Amino acid sequence: MTRHVTTIEELGRAGLLEVCRLARDAGGVSLAGDGVALVFERPSLRTRASSAVAVTDLGGHPTFFTGDEIGIDSRESAEDVARTIAAYFSIAALRVRDHGVFARMREATKDRLSVINLLSNEAHPTQAIADLLTLADHFSAGDVAGLAGLEVAYVGDATNVARSLSVALRLVGACVRVASPARYRLARGRAEDPDRVSTGSLVEGDDVVEGVRGADVVYTDAWVSMGAEAETERRRRDLQGYRVTPDVLDVAGPEAVFLHCLPAHRGDEVVDAVLDGPRSLIWQQAAHRRSAMRGALAWVRGGA
Length: 304
Known about the structure:
By secondary structure, this protein is of the alpha/beta class. It has two domains: 129 residues, Rossmann fold, CATH 3.40.50; 160 residues, CATH 3.40.50.1370. Helices cover 40% and strands 15% of the residues. The protein contains twelve helices and nine strands. The strands form two sheets. Strands 7-6-5-8-9 form a five-stranded parallel sheet. The radius of gyration is 19 Å and the shape is globular. The mean pLDDT is 96.
């Protein structure tokens, strides 16, 4: 059966734990002699770099395509793009504007092509996997299942990153708190919906202090995500009270750590003293993007 990584929710707990295990030890899975199509409709630094290196780690050859080169649904349909890619590759990893592209590609290729989501408007599963690996290194000697009961506070705009992170944390039994203005809270009814997970817990509110109080982890993301640039000034006004500062981190507690998926807009959602401070794990997160992608590739290849 062809495997895919399009959301954490679709992976489920067993699949998520297996991907995390393979991220640390691919178990002899090899892409030798094979290429992986890496498609980027949106800009990328960490995702592009980590994907290229992870494919190479497993002996494969990464081939890059930009959005302008392919033109999904402008130059040709997503279905025809998928059929063409499937003629040359068995795995495609894509950063796309529209999450619905993944289902269309799977249907068009009759599920012959394994698809990995490198970010869509609804989910960012490889980032969430990297986050779990980072937290497991810090809190549970590398055991992702050992994160049960961990208290993670997310502050600010609850983006696609926040949705995948919330699903992943709930699947391993962690407790998620989201502190956001009402219009920036977790969207429901999408491809990645933490309400459809019955384990762990999720609490939302608009009070930053109550949201982070006593938390083990404080996490934030950019106020202005890709595609929302026209809303920059309004978002800065709406979210100015949700900046992560040393005082916010201190409310969480002296042992609390800080995460950010990057890129960070220094001075907006977080200040330098937190990003560059001793409790920041952002560069461990960035490094684990490679691990996460390696795990995703090994899993869709059939590693077990």
